[in-house]
Design a protein that fits this description.
This protein has helices at 6-16, 18-26, 35-48, 65-73, 84-93, 133-142, 162-171, 180-190, 201-204, 218-223, 226-237, and strands at residues 55-59, 76-81, 99-103, 117-123, 143-152, 194-198, 246-250. It is α/β, with parallel strands linked by helices and 251 residues long.
Length: 251
């Protein structure tokens, strides 16, 4: 690796993925082979958020597809990201009166004169930080008293996944595990008064609805049986939350 910092590579990520990568990014979730999984992951966030109207800060918004969905729901949305190319893509793709995008590093504080937000969301972005404490402090400072921060991040084992290793080796971006215990400790240190862990959608519902192509093996057929699926869901809702969780932090 060159002398560039990890953060420099995060800034350059959308410039480095090429035209096809950028087209894929702005067309998500519909362009993604895991479209169903992405929709299943983001759906619980809408249930956990207070209903609109409310001000929502989408932290690490990338090319903006999550911000657009929140705006479609009726929230007044600000999406922030460290990548200038991501913000340019998002601003050029999504045009709504209740949606804006800002170039901003989530390690740095927002303008203290900014109107506080009711909701902050990390959707697959916090694990790109080098230290989760700084972005969680950023979220805390951006929220009004009584506001909530929702954290939907990959947990234990993510950094070892093939896709994570490829991103790290090819684009030199940060791909970390973000287990609930690390989020909880950083959130309480930032000042959040409570942390609630829910089953992570990727571990809870996504596997239950994954299509098996071709001729399923005996193990795959067994895992799709209703009773076995129910036991897997129970495990995800209990013991698995130590490794992966959808978290709500209250200020």
């Amino acid at each position: 690796m060159s002398k560039q910092s990890r953060k420099d590579f995060e800034r350059a990520y959308f410039a480095n993925i090429g035209d096809s990568g950028r087209r894929h990014a702005v067309a998500k979730p519909w362009s993604d082979e895991n479209c169903g999984g992405l929709l299943q992951e983001i759906a619980p966030i809408f249930s956990l958020c207070p209903p609109p109207p409310a001000r929502l800060l989408d932290i690490g918004c990338g090319a903006g597809w999550t911000s657009d969905l929140f705006a479609r729901r009726g929230y007044d949305v600000t999406g922030v990201d460290i990548s200038p190319d991501a913000i340019e893509l998002a601003s050029g793709t999504y045009a709504r009166n209740n949606l804006r995008f800002l170039l901003h590093d989530f390690d740095d504080a927002l303008d203290p004169t900014s109107e506080p937000f009711d909701i902050a969301v990390f959707f697959d972005s916090l694990h790109h930080s080098e230290d989760e404490r700084r972005p969680l402090s950023f979220a805390y400072d951006a929220l009004r008293q009584g506001g909530i921060c929702i954290v939907c991040e990959p947990g234990t084992g993510h950094a070892r996944a093939e896709s994570s290793r490829h991103a790290t080796e090819t684009f030199h971006v940060t791909e970390r595990d973000m287990p609930p215990r690390a989020v909880r400790a950083a959130a309480l240190s930032a000042g959040f008064r409570s942390v609630t862990c829910y089953p992570h959608p990727q571990r809870f519902c996504v596997p239950l609805y994954r299509q098996i192509s071709g001729h399923p093996s005996p193990k795959q057929r067994l895992l799709r049986r209703p009773m076995v699926a129910a036991l897997r869901a129970f495990y995800a809702a209990s013991a698995e939350r130590r490794r992966w969780a959808l978290m709500v932090l209250e200020k």
